[in-house]
Automatic annotation (TrEMBL), chains A, B, C, D:
Residues 48-64 have a biased composition (Basic and acidic residues). Homotetramer. This is Chorismate synthase. Pathway: Metabolic intermediate biosynthesis; chorismate biosynthesis; chorismate from D-erythrose 4-phosphate and phosphoenolpyruvate: step 7/7. The lineage of its organism: Bacteria, Bacillati, Bacillota, Clostridia, Eubacteriales. GO terms for molecular function: chorismate synthase activity; FMN binding.
Length: 368, 368, 368, 368
């Protein structure tokens, strides 16, 4: 289902080419001031048409707030937002109705929904559905910021080019938020430039590339989360794998940890100004599902955009016949650029949910 | 929390050195015959003391079935199982009470539970809690097998040694189940032998190693799962990250997909005996959160065992003082060997849960 | 929260005087044909301004379908509906901002939302929020009808006047649906006439009345539901108590059962045309939380409308001062008339949810 | 399912004549001291064989704590309790295997579980399963008491005899807890005596009686709960309808409210010592799903015990033949006496769950 959350629930709806898309957010504490400008800026980072590395589809994607807000402050009751679809070229998708685009959910969606799904533009499976996710995550981000928690991300790898990594121990708010402020979210501008060249090269050869987004969190209080199935890792994973094209997720050293010895991987505890910290942070700020107070660090792997203009072999699943397919329409040669705020949004929602469990709604709402 | 599941729920309880550990499983369809011998054999694969690569702690780990079964058939009402703890050396853990073992949840658990947690042997955070998970997953495995679905896993990497991978397209039941049948679960016996040597070398140097478990599934029907937050990947992730020491998870090509171009990664559809299949399986059998009918493939990264006998620097969090710590007790130099059935169990539970959502309890129960 | 459901989830949003209200419905099976005319007719039964027994506020309440439907058939992905608020007199509510209307949630909502709630017209607590509930329930009703399950209700009591009850054994579809087809939903037209007179009398004396809605279900398959906390009674109760003004709920004989002896209350089983039935139906079609195949019967008690034009003593909770209050605005002297379809909607959602659990989505969707 | 709760989850297992019954409680805050004597006394109130008004089956019902407690303090991780079944006469139930006991879930359970359910003594549907519910509720009660919240109940009606009601405005802790302290839980001892006589008369005529339990709560903070589906009423209803034999539930005036006019039912607000209170309390302390700070009051209707020794007509559902049945075994002629602590337990769990949502686990746990 498209519903997620324990104490902070979201329910996302919409299809790429239907009347609109949106989200209902239930459980936001009351009295949270919303900085609409900041929210719009955050959503703009995901919006298409911002950079030539992205799809030329242009949409305002300005969400209409239908409930849950008075003035610029949350009421505490469900907050609903609607984004109208107004720039759709459905005819581009005519032939997709029964020819499965490789790498897409056309065929699996056909089976899952017994042939009734809206397949235009990917329907409910479209990357466009990340717009309401980013909206919801933008609110969670502002909620976290009021608690001194900051969430940022950057492109760690793209098309074989690596950015500089976040420093797992010394990561600060300024460094964390810097990539998001630039048009191409990397720490190292030169690496970003090379990525853009590679993306452009992929586009020129009617192909696409994937990449890895690294997300960091500073200021998250230690001691939040739970063991087993309700740990921060489970909670983050349950939402991050809801982002289209994500095929992998790792925390701290992740897969690299599997290559280390315990003596290399264990983070020694020490005191810094009377506070317990760790000298290294291979664990990515989470031990036993619970935050340690160190920066939280994770990486999500994105497969290359499935929609490519190259001719591909496929099957028409209604006619049960093999055929060749050329995917038309406008598509990003690389979704990773726009995926950066989506990962930030997903992680922010997961952490806000966990914080609500720890502090309750009373602990997070602002008294009038 | 230690509760998981939608249509098939599990609630795990217990501490490493308390009276016992166990699980309540709610939502199992009625009329499922339980092969107790097979279940015991599956649990034995996780049990300690089986191989010198594992901790010398020996336990029978024979679960007592408290409810939900008559004869050897499920009743459909909650099935509870209890495993008594009977071989505990609590005194080994005396000094841990306030010295945080690096890489463990001692300190985060101390904060989370305000100092009241049972820290002996890791308490509720202990790897021992995977025994009831394997028990529950063993039942899910048998449920799936009745539907023609088979789940198997092997050590894909350990201590820098790689096993042969599962063939993502041609994987069959026989190959899938072979590693689980051997004492050291690899496809390539020679690779297994080298891993054992490396593990032994780590033990000799009072150190530990990590590794990667690859899990495969054949026979899972196409069209099961849901988009966004209830996809097979989310559901599997939400339980796999509940296994202690897991720091990464990837499906299909996973992180390697991020390095490919779309034309390389997209799996072309074709017909085989009139059935829609894909020529390659970079997607790992899941598109848009929904099964494609191809083998499901995933890999989980395990960090090296945190408990090592080497002296380590740490902090006594009650006394707020730095100190040196030598972890006593009996510990696996490598948890990955015993983690193989745990991953199978977690994946089996996730898939059984998804199948129950698709077919309902009526569709999965056996009429008497 | 305003989110409900296991296999069929609804998330309701909106405030009485905000931009709009609506619902996201997640889990509807694909391929359900929607009879929009029937849905509109069902919603019209709840709409204000239909009868002089109701509030003069007139709204079209025509929901816009934002997603989840193509043509007139569900896609299986989340279905969202938006109802714009277009006839609001917010100024009527000016003085309510801090004077607690007796019988309303003004004061408790003020505390719950730390003063940030939208209090105009009751905000999210308004009876107007039952419009999206009725919309969602109307879809569930159509889903159930395709399975041969029919849900109907009538005013069992109002202002001291009793309608004829549903026959718990012989209730048929025709009788069940008759009250809903009339402007004033009773079985006995004369009783209905007397109720209208009493309601009118209450209005004339600037007062209000309450009542009881009886709901019946025929055709629901036997054997659906679960023991303990997931029984049909729990599931129905969890949503019916979400209808504003409901203060009581009973199944079968309900409170009257408490006065009977076992020999009077037990329903003897017998065979009718080879089928197991009960001779009487004191149980209201539910035994141990599970349907027996007999008609399901329940009654919900509604308190009298809290908004009355009579001067009332109250407290200004911001100024912490006692005062007198005259509630302005347009209010039903009796909500029970319009509550009849709301109860039908809530019960339909609960039963559709239970049926999805039993049959799975595959068992309820229509193959294209 | 037999799993319940949001922030405080319980998972109940067991069958009347299986090895044992029990519960896993997940989400209890850490550092809650458990008064075992008080807990035992509370459980003793539900235990059979205490009064001749109850079944002669005698069990110690002493729960073994398997996890979640060290010494007498909760650890915050799942707390599991096991109660062994040790006094069972399964042979008494031999003939029930296929003859549906009227008023019982034998037949519906047979359908639900496809014939595989454990029917001995009602299996999982047995009233015996309320023992773990009372255990869990006893812990919730102690948690609430630490917050100044007290929950008590009494038999409001039984066999046509009425007890004095709780005073909805002036109810205090002392009055509230008095009935529970006596062997026969009424406020008015004379009424209790008459109830006992009626119960005894019912037993003598091999029959049974039902009744109504009234439950009150004092000290619950105002402003806790949520609108729509997560209100205190929904939450309480979702668990109270899990108590076997409950067929009705009402809050405040409940069904009687349906007979009142708004001017009679509305509770005027006023100030008492600077605090907002209501003059009357027809609402039962809940407005819009949220606590008002006044005593919370509710009543649950219990049908008469279904197991009666009188011959009854029924159907053998395996042989599909009508027959006469004489229910053997030991049965309460009135479950209401023992149901009093069960209602207290259910209400305590619901309120503790709501309080955890408001205050978070940090707000409710005791710092060591």
């Amino acid at each position: 289902m498209s519903t997620w959350g324990n104490d902070l629930k979201i329910s996302i709806f919409g299809e790429s080419h239907g009347p609109g898309i949106g989200v209902v957010i239930d459980g936001l504490p009351a009295g949270l001031p919303i900085d609409r400008e900041e929210l719009a800026a955050f959503m703009a980072r995901r919006a298409p048409g911002r950079d030539k590395a992205s799809t030329p589809r242009r949409e305002t994607d300005r969400p209409e707030l239908l409930s849950g807000v008075r003035g610029d402050v949350t009421t505490g009751t469900p907050l609903a937002a609607l984004i109208r679809n107004n720039d759709t070229h459905s005819s581009d998708y005519g032939e997709l109705a029964s020819a499965a685009r490789p790498g897409h959910a056309d065929y699996t969606g056909f089976l899952r929904y017994a042939g009734w799904g809206d397949v235009r533009g990917g329907g409910h499976f479209s990357g466009r559905l990340t717009a309401p996710l980013v909206f919801a995550g933008g609110l969670a981000k502002q909620l976290l910021a009021r608690e001194g928690v900051y969430v940022g991300a950057h492109i760690a790898r793209c098309a074989g080019v690596a950015d500089a990594p976040f420093d797992p121990v010394r990561l600060d708010r300024e460094t964390l938020l810097r990539p998001g402020a630039s048009a191409f979210p990397t720490l190292d501008a030169a690496a970003g430039e090379r990525m853009r060249e590679e993306i452009e090269a992929a586009r020129m050869s009617t192909d696409s590339v994937g990449g890895v987004v690294e997300c960091g969190v500073v200021g998250f209080p230690a001691g939040v989360g739970s063991p087993m199935f309700d740990g921060l890792e489970n909670r983050i994973a349950s939402i991050v794998f809801g982002i289209p094209a994500v095929k992998g997720l790792e925390f701290g050293d992740g897969f690299a940890a599997a290559e280390l010895r315990g003596s290399e991987h264990n983070d020694p505890f020490r005191l810094a100004d009377g506070k317990v910290v760790t000298e290294t942070n291979h664990a990515g700020g989470i031990l036993g599902g619970i935050s340690s107070g160190m920066p939280i660090l994770l990486r999500a792997a994105f497969k290359p955009t499935a929609s490519i203009a190259k001719p591909q072999r496929t099957v028409d699943f209604r006619e049960n016949a093999e055929r060749e397919l050329v995917v038309k329409g406008r598509h990003d040669p690389c979704v990773v650029v726009r995926a950066v705020p989506v990962v930030e949004a997903a992680v922010s929602l997961a952490l806000a949910d966990a914080l609500l469990g720890a502090k309750g709604y009373e602990g997070l709402q602002n008294r009038k």
